[in-house]
Amino acid sequence: MPAAVTDEQNRVDRETLLDAAERLFYENGIQAVGMDQVRAASGLSLKRIYRFFEAKEDLVVAMLERRDQRWRGSLAAHVDRVADPRERVLSVFDWLAEWFAEPGFRGCAWINAHGELGASSEAVLAEVRAHKKAFHDQIDTWVRATGLPVTEPVYLLAEGAIVTAGISGDPVPARQAREAVAALLGRPSP
Fold first, then answer.
1. Taking residues 3-12, what's their average pLDDT?
2. What is the separation of C-alpha 175 from the centre of its chain, rounded to a whole number of angstroms?
3. Alpha-carbon distance 30 to 44, whole Å?
4. Are 121 and 135 contacting, i.e. CB atoms less than 8 angstroms apart?
5. What does the H/E/C string look like for the chain?
6. Do residues 105 and 95 make contact, with C-beta atoms less than 8 angstroms apart?
7. How many whole angstroms separate alpha carbon 82 and alpha carbon 148?
8. In this structure, what is the dihedral angle of CA atoms 126, 14, 100, 187, given to the nearest 10 degrees?
9. CA distances from 11 to 8, 18, 75, 82 (A)
């Protein structure tokens, strides 16, 4: 009789599975990756994978949820190092520039997932919308601290930079969006 799987082993296996799925889905696209590829990359049996997630859609949603926490957490940590409200907003675009320049950058995982599954998966669509709302709320918090009513254009410039960089493979849109946001925010106080 096989030994019982511990809670710690379940946690490790689940994280290993999510790591493998995230890498494969982001690099290749969700629909292009079969569960056999996820099995091979994770080293887990299909039976074990389906104990964690009953369907591929569930795995995609869990991967997006986990990526959201890590992505927005990294952004917040970067912005929180800056004291001045105006510079905090501009630092969002500095962080985006660093992300765009990372090897393997393929744009926004949520926009990519929406493009592939948004029309056919309510669960994926809900997760994409939750991420975009949470990102908007982050931007809103930082912009409101400047006292200027420019949340929407700042958010749209960030989203536009992400999409443009993802399509072009060029990190320059972050700098261009940063320059536009700097103009929206006006000159810094002396």
1. 86
2. 19
3. 19
4. no
5. CCCCCCHHHHHHHHHHHHHHHHHHHHHHCCCCCCHHHHHHHHCCCHHHHHHHCCCHHHHHHHHHHHHHHHHHHHHHHHHHCCCCHHHHHHHHHHHHHHHHCCCCCCCCHHHHHHHHHCCCCHHHHHHHHHHHHHHHHHHHHHHHCCCCCCHHHHHHHHHHHHHHHHHHCCCHHHHHHHHHHHHHHCCCCC
6. no
7. 18
8. 60
9. 5, 11, 25, 35
Whole-angstrom distance, CA of residue 62 vs CA of residue 19: 11
**Angstrom distance (rounded) from CA 109 to CA 99:** 12
**Nearest to 108, CA basis, from 31, 60, 163:** 163
Residues in the chain: 190
Res 1: pLDDT: 58
pLDDT at 4 over 90: no
| Burial class of residue 81 in the structure, from the number of CB atoms within 10 Å of its CB (0-12 exposed, 13-18 middle, 19+ buried) | exposed
The per-residue pLDDT for range 50-97, each reduced to its tens digit, is 999 999 999 999 999 999 999 999 999 999 999 999 999 999 999 999
What whole-number distance in Å separates Cα of residue 134 and Cα of residue 127?
A: 10
Distance CA 44, CA 48 (A): 6
